[in-house]
Amino acid sequence: MPEYLAPGVFIEETSFRSKSIEGVGTSVASLVGPTRTGPLSGVPEALTSFADFERTFGDAADLTFKVDDTTTTTVPNYTSHAARAFFDNGGKQLFVARVSRAADDGSGPTALTAAKADDLTDVTFTSRFPGAVANYALELHWKSTEHLLVETVLNTVSEGEVVFLVANGVPVAAKSGAKPTADKFPMDVKAIVKRTGADFVVQNTAVALKPGTTDPIGGADPLTALKIAGLPTDAKVYRVSARRPQQSALADGTLAVLKLKKSGGVGLNLSAYDASFNFSTFSNLVGFLDANGSTLTLPAARNAGLAADVSLPLAVLQGQSAFIESLSVRLFDLDVHRTGKDGEIIWRTGNLTVAPGLGNSLDALLPAAPARKMDELTQPVACALGTSPSGTKVLAALEKLYDPTDLAPPAGSLDGPRCIIKLTGGTDGSVPAAVDYAGTEDLINGSTGLAALESVEDISIVMVPAAAAHMATHKAVLMEMQKHCRKMRYRVGIVDPREGMSLGEVREFRNDFDDTRLALYYPWVVISDPTGARLEINVPPSGFMAGIFARTDVDRGVHKAPANEVVLGALKFEQDLNKFQQELLNPNGINCLRSFPDRGHRVWGGRTLSSDPEWKYVNVRRYFHFLERSIEKSTQWAVFEPNGEGLWANIRSSVEDFLYNEWKSGRLLGGTAKDAYFVRCDRSTMTQNDIDNGRMVCVVGVAALKPAEFVIFRIGQKTAEA
């Protein structure tokens, strides 16, 4: 209550209208079953297209399950087919929970690690999610960046920096130490030098000339160091370094290539830097840059003709432009092929480097635990580097992983060498059991199966199409779905019969269920096989029906029975039912899918699997879910409000306004609002004991619309009157 302690004008906001109730969505579906890949635990992400499904859970190729140590069975990927059917028939939002056999007994799907050389463990590729699809082929495409060498004239030189010095007429006062003798001065100097205190220490030999001569000063009287302060004022110091590439960065161990020009057999000769090496015989030098881009280390193992490793300061390349074509960083693009090296590319990334510690290194772009959830769901592989990795080790490890048959194509082949790393040994595990579909609740590692869907409130449709492929576990899985729908209250489960059931078998199968939250559709649907392995394939109807539920909700409303609707994507149905056969099934709550001349393939039933006539129809059950959930969600504000006439009147007004809008929209039966619904919340609906115990009771009655399942016209003869 506000306090008024001083005179003045006070403005206070208040509300004179009741709280409105907003209708909840009813078309969000969930799909539980085995898939080719994808996460096995955690809260599912909403998918809005079949492309989203494929990116996260793989393609529609068949699944191969282990029966025993020597036997496997291959079944169509009904989960993927159901997802496609859902979106094709108008579905907009789908949550998918992948299930697998429990991994602790060794029967779960297998995660893959690329083979490694015994002496090189610095690179490990792992499939992010297990499954047979994880037998990926990783292809590396090597490429070079732009020319990176930069020459800069310096005013000051940092301690320890290696630079190129050009100075003419150097006086004897510039000498440092006892040699060379004074008669050698003045001299012209072109030398690789290193700043050490107040001196430039010469790093190479035979680069100082007596003015007017061509004889180098060296041999027994070499130039070793010069005093910086004694150099002529016009002396120039050049820094030669590699600049940062546009598509990457530099770190210790960055792979680089120094490409040399060849003219008349004469190339770059750096023997003045190190007399033991003559580079005139090389055209390409492969090495590793340091983080500063000032030193190129050339391993002898990668440069045939080098007797030992060479650490080459780039300063030695100053003035050698006539012989240097380019210095470029070597990066690579990575393609992930789904089924072998010539299979579909399902993911790619570019401009990776072998140098560790950069944003585009393998371990940074393919971490085991990505910071972004989208990367975790869509990246098919992860990469880890060993302890104390370096660019040299990473490159060597990658080369050990290459498939040698692709590096050396057969004679006469038009294919060039390809850098392929193959992951092998992945399996789909054993057939998931009912307990795997039920899942477990795990707040630490993430819940699995149906339990993972409990935290997603928006779901209203549940389906488990893949369970119908396995007779031994089919009924038990459906029982788990039934328990889940009852537990979550506002969900309806779509029941699939098994393939090829006769009329008698499906009637007997139906007898195992009596629930207002289940609906059974029969027979299976024949579609064109999207994998191309077969011309046609039979699939369970639940995916189609979930999409039709969603389409009807959007086009007409949840009050409309999802029946007499076209089944999009159906070539035909597994069995061509006629009217007389349906007369055996419809009274048992088995909804038939039928083909009609000139009217296509349609849903011809809208009943639940309930013996209670009050809840005979699917649309009535789902419409009450809509009303109950909408009222529950939009009246949370009333909790802990003072339980009196003011609250009761507000609740009555809110619910009446909501139901009035439903009646005006044609979703309730009745010529007037009074006939369509009533709302009571007063002393007649609660006792003093209810009030004393904090209970507010509101009674709501609505006249739901039933579908016109049997349209009857009574026609008789009439005598004409004058």
Describe the overall structure.
20% of the residues lie in helices and 24% in strands. It has an eight-stranded mixed β-sheet with strand order 2-5-1-24-25-26-30-31, with helices on both faces. Strands 7, 16, 17, 18, 19, 20, 21 and 23 form an eight-stranded antiparallel β-sheet that branches. Among the domains are: 265 residues, Rossmann fold; 92 residues, no CATH class; 80 residues, no CATH class. It is built from 15 helices and 33 strands. β12 and β13 form a beta hairpin. The mean pLDDT is 87. It is elongated. The longest helix has 20 residues. The protein is of the alpha+beta class and 722 residues long.
Can you tag this structure with a few keywords?
722 residues; alpha+beta; elongated; 20% helix; eight-stranded antiparallel beta sheet; 33 strands; eight-stranded mixed beta sheet; Rossmann fold; single chain
Cα-based radius of gyration, to the nearest Å: 39 Å
Which regions contain 5 or more consecutive residues with pLDDT less than 50? none
Q: What's the end-to-end separation, in Å? A: 82 Å
Beta percentage is 15-25%
Text of the CATH class of the domain at 29-107 and 430-615: Alpha Beta
Give the tally of β-strands: 33
Shape: elongated
What's the pLDDT, averaged over the residues?
Answer: 87
Number of alpha- plus pi-helical segments: 15
In the CATH hierarchy, the third-tier topology of the domain at 29-107 and 430-615 is known as: Rossmann fold
Classify the secondary structure makeup into a structural class: alpha+beta
Helicity, as a percent range: 10-25%
Order of strands across the biggest sheet?
2-5-1-24-25-26-30-31
Q: What's the architecture of the domain at 29-107 and 430-615, going by CATH?
A: 3-Layer(aba) Sandwich
Largest sheet: 8 strands, mixed
